[in-house]
Amino acid sequence: MNQIVFSNDPCRMNWLREDFTYGEITHPDGMTCHVEHHQEGDLYRTNVTFANTGEKPIYTHTDSIRIRFPLPDTYESSDVCISSRCNAHIFCGGDVSYICALRMGGEAPHLGMVLTEGSLAAYSIERNLKQMSNDRGCFLLHPSPMVLLPGEQKKLSWVIFPHNGKEDFLEKLRTFDRYAEVRADRYVLFLGETVRIRIRPSKKAGCVKANGQLLSPISDSGDDFVYEFTPTALGEQLIPIDVDGLHTWCRIFVQEPLQTLAQKRCQFIAQNQQASPDEDGLSGAYLIYDTEENHRFYDAENDFNAGRERAGMGLLMVKYLQKEKKNGRCHEDLTESLQRYIAFVKRELIIQKTGEVCNDFGLDNRFKRLYNFPWYCEFFTECYWLDGNPEHLATAFSILQCYYQQGGEHFYPIELPLRRLSDALCHAGMKSEQEILIRNCVRHADTILSADVHYPPHEVNYEQSIVAPAADVLFQAYLLTHEEKYLEGGKRQLHVLEQFTGIQPDYHLNEVAIRHWDGYWFGKRRMFGDTFPHYWSALNGNVYLLYYEITKDEAYRKKAEDSFRGVLPLFFPDGTASCAYVFPYTVNHQRAGFYDPYANDQDFGLYFALRSDLMD
Length: 616
What we know:
The protein is an alpha+beta fold. It has 15 helices and 29 strands. A hairpin with a 2-residue loop joins β2 and β3.
């Protein structure tokens, strides 16, 4: 089978990529595999039979069998992506396994897959590395470990079907006998919180267990079972679930209280990640920390230098100190660390006369990059809210002016603080500067509005952190002008943005946006592959929170909090952190499933969580 095209699709999208063979299997010696495909209208059924033709038993492990499932989750131009490419959300949850593949533009029909026989343990990725960040790769499904005795056969089967979106996908899953819906009210908890897990079998169940505890239905209909659990230990918790012998799980993560987590992280940065005075031009800089070898690290290569995304550490530090000051607490050591960092930024990264943000210390701007401007504009805006010094606002405003002088209205910047700077300028009585800012915002929003979903390529051809800025700028423009066109345009972007996030019962995947290249560019292991989580996933949370502020839709407040919580597993109780978790079982046959050793740029995620005030 080389194509799957649904009958009511006006775009005639083929849901199978052409450079890999659907259903192709790699398996151990002594095992044979027979694959059958059947089509019934818009239903596509695949049956795989494994047989042991040898004289001795075959024991498999997770990576022994690989089944290619080549969905077109690739980034060409935005025009191609919107109509003919998908975001694939995969749950290999044992007996309850499925794929919810969403067309990137959000228009139905979408593709669903549900396992109807057998069990899946994990998935891997096979990537064409020549495509770098623009190709997520071919998915390889791994059946759960099994034992095949001589002459024995076992089967794995699934059905592919069209659906109209996430809720319709879940409704269709409920029609399959071999499915049990598992949903938690939250997937990242703070210590002391209770998680409530709802289990809904597709048919009336006689025996439902969670964590070994026998559950009773919550109503006479017997449709829903609820398990409540208050973890007493930090870290990952895998909760096994059995429904009449059908085995699956829910994966949650338990984290320290947010302010405690931020305190430990800030103390670690000040004590371990700040360059000392004898490090010459780097003095005061916040640098990468190698958690494997326990030392600071700097390299002039872009994503390892002393500028760029390392701004997240400064933003976290100033936001934490704001929170502590509000609560009447002072941290002299952290305040001193922040002042040294401010001095570094002004001395080594910002050209004071123009507002130019340089790429690395020493006012090194041989590599021009507009992404750098918003972060340092935001940093100095936050510094103003900490100590009220108007010089910080003057610096922030000059950075923003320089950004727009370089054509910033045609760029989709990550985390542009238009409204926060506007509020600060108003607070400081800088009315003329605020008026200039609003004019720039309107010009920027109009450019994004006219482009609609025809996004220009940036460092990646198409990605979540192009769509999120589009929605973010439009919602900010609405809040600054109250012009309805910006709200309506933002809604359009919001719909596209939501296609990046999944609904699986796993803290790695639920409300965590698809990203699959950051571990290579920012990590020590230099590995491509799905990063679940990665801190820029929380850009979705920022957009959801703006939309909640505008509409008061409580569903988006909840989605925002879930998004912010989703990146917190990147931070550890000893104050260290990781720039990304590389999620697949393997990537190009190299074992993954690890937190990268570099504490690099992830502190934006903790900053967003603190800034949101949703978890105070």
